[in-house]
C-alpha cells in the first residue's frame, strides 16, 4: 500500500526524471546549434545524412531516459564507440561495417574456438607436446587473446571487435583447462584431480567476470557465468551432496551482487534457467535427500527474490524500458515455477501425505517478497503478489480433492480481489483473474465428469457433487461481475487498456457455466425449459438493474434454447413433450418481446394502436 513516504519518493523521482530529460534536451539543442554554426562557417561540408541524424537523435533519447537493460546498455556503448566510423563511411557502407566488424568477428571467434578443439584432438593423435603442455599452451594463448581484446576495447576504442575477441579468448582458455579433466586421455596422463580443475576454472571465470564488470562488458560477463554453470555441471561428477548446490548458490549470489552495481536484469533472468537446470541434473545423478533438496530450493528462491528486490530500485529511470519491465515480471514467475517443482519433489519423498506443501511455501515466500518491496525503498513487486495467489491455489489443489479444490480456488479468488482493493496492489487481482480462469477450465475438464450428479437418494454426495460446485462458481462469478461493474475506480490502467470489461467476462463465464450444468443435470424437455427460464431470469435482472449486458446474455440464452427446440426437440421428443417445449418457449419469448416493447419510448402499447384504430401519435401506453 502507498503511504506518504512513498508518495514523496515518487514525487522526487519524477522531479529527477524531468531534470534529466531537460538536461538531455538542452544538450541536444546546443549540439544542433553548433552543427548549424559549423555548416554556416564551412560551405563545403556535406549535408548530414537523414538516417545518421535519426540514429543520433535515438542515441540522445536513450541518454535522456536512461538504459534499463544491461545488454542494451552495452550495445548502446558499442554503437557510440563506432559512431564516428559510421558517420564518415556513410549509409552506403553501414551494412559493410556491420558485417565486417560484428558478423565476421563472431564467425571468426567461433571458428577459432572450434579450431582449438580440433587442435587438441590432433595433438592427441600425433603426439604433439604432452597433455600438460597442450593445456598450458592453450590456456596461455586464450588468456593472451582475452588480454588483446580487452586492450582493443579500452585503449583503442574498438569496443565490438575487442569484446568478441575477449570472449573467444576466454572460451579457448576455459576449454584448455577443462581438457585436463574432461578428456579421459588427458585425465589419465596428467592425473588431474577434479577439485584442481574446478578450482582453476572457477578462478578463470571469477577473474574474467571481475575484469569485465569493471569494463562494463555485460556480454563477456554473461559468457563467464555461462561457463561457470558448465563448471557446476562438471562438479556433479564429484557425486557429493554439497559441491554442486553450493557452487550454484555462489554463482546466483554473485549475479545478484553484480546487480547492485550494474542493473543487468537479462543476466539474472537467464541465470535462473541455468541454475535450476543444473539443479535438476544434480537431482537425477546424485539423488539427494529430501532435506538437502528442500534447503537448496528455498535458498535459491530467496537469492533470486533478493535479485528482484535489487533490480527494483525506483531511483533508476530504467523502468521506462519495456524490456526491462518484462524481465522483472518474468523473474519471480520463473523462480516460483522451478522452486515449486523442486519443493514438491522433496515433500513427496519426505512427507507423501503433505502434497501441496511445497507450493504453499512458495506462496508464502512470494507474499513476503511483496511485503518487503512494498515497505522498502524500491518499486513494489506486484508480480510476486500475483504469483502468491496462484501458488496458494496450486498448493490447495494438490493437497485436497476435486470438490474442495474448486471451493478453495473460488475462496482464494475472492480474497485476492479484496486484498487488491485494501492494499491498493493490482497484482493480487491479476493473480485472482488467473486462478478464476483456471477454475473455470477445471470445472469444464474435471468437475463435469468426475463429480457426482444430483441424486436425491444421496444427499451427502450431492452436497459435494457437480451441481453444487457449478452453483458456487456461478454465484462467485456473477458476484465478481457486479463487484467490478460497481467499482471501476480500483482497476489499474493495464486492466482498462489490455483486458476486456471484467464485469462482462465474469458474467459471460457464469452464464456459460449455468447453461452447461443445466444441460448436464437435466435432459430432453427439462433442458429446454430450464434454459428458457434462465434467459427469462437474466432478462428480468437486466431490466430491473438496467444492465444491458445481462439483457444481451438473456438474448443469447434464448437463441440457444430456440435452436434446441426447433432442431433437437422436434426430432427427439414425443408429441406431449414437444408440444410443451414449443408452448413454453413461445410464451416466454412473447413476454420477453413485450418487455422490450415497454422499454422503448417510441413504441405504442395500446391495443387500438396495435390494431390500427388509434387516432393519435404515441398514446398513453408509451413508456420511457
Automatic annotation (TrEMBL):
InterPro entries assigned: DUF2339_TM
Chain segments carrying region Disordered: 30-87
Span of the signal peptide: none
Biased amino acid composition, Acidic residues: 32-41
Superkingdom of the source species: Archaea
Compositional bias annotation for Basic and acidic residues: 42-63
Transmembrane regions listed in the UniProt entry: 103-124, 130-149, 161-181, 193-211, 218-236, 242-260, 267-284, 290-312, 324-343, 355-373, 385-418, 468-486, 498-519, 525-545, 552-568, 580-597
Lipid metabolism is among the record's keywords: no
Keywords from the named record: Membrane, Transmembrane, Transmembrane helix
Record protein name field: DUF2339 domain-containing protein
Organism: Halobiforma nitratireducens JCM 10879
